[in-house]
Amino acid sequence: MFPSAPRRTAFLAAAALLLIGTPRIDATVAERLQSGDAAPRFELVQPELFGVANTFTNAIADYDNDADLDMFVGFGEGPNRLYRNDDGRFVDVAVEAGVAENEVTRAAAWGDYDGDGHLDLFVGFVSRQGSSNRLFRNEGDGRHFTDVTEAAGVGISGSFRQVSWVDYDNDGDVDRERRAASRAGDRQPL
Q: Given CA atoms 16, 2, 75, 152 in this order, what sign does their dihedral have?
């Protein structure tokens, strides 16, 4: 069952606050938000970055371990972006970080695949011209990722729609679940 519209709006407002930091909210406004009596008001932040259309996926995490949330955004047209959060101001560092792929991107998730304490990035593309997913290893300096897809044995072609990292076998490390659609439309765990 889906929450009511005011509760859904309050949830989305809370998610946005986690991403951009907590603004100054007085007690009256906070009470109105919690009761569902008022829709939150948002201010457009950095429209030069976030005003770009045709996004298909995003993944939010603190990839540079600086205690604030950063965001990877996958696009249907144009290169993907990696927004590093620098004290509440976002900077697109995808080119410098090595993750500005120009493929139609439908899935992305952060997970520490090699257990080194640095979040790595798995990106899934729509199958066109033989493209496959990519696994980018975080080099740990908060500045660069290396494509380790083939070395990790995860280079699979297909139209990826979902990827998740979870410790499903309870052994203390993350496991990856990917879902791809074949041309016939079947979904297959990989």
A: positive
**pTM as predicted:** 0.71
pLDDT, tens digit, for every residue of 99-133? 999 988 999 999 998 889 999 999 998 876 667 78
Residues 136-147 as b or e (16 or more Cβ within 10 Å = b): bbbeeebeebeb
**Cα(102)–Cα(139) distance, rounded to whole angstroms?**
22
pLDDT in tens, 66-88: 999 999 999 988 899 999 999 98
Token readout for 30 is 């906070």
How remote is the C-alpha of 56 from its chain's centroid?
Answer: 10
Nearest to 89 by CA among 58, 42, 56, 48: 48
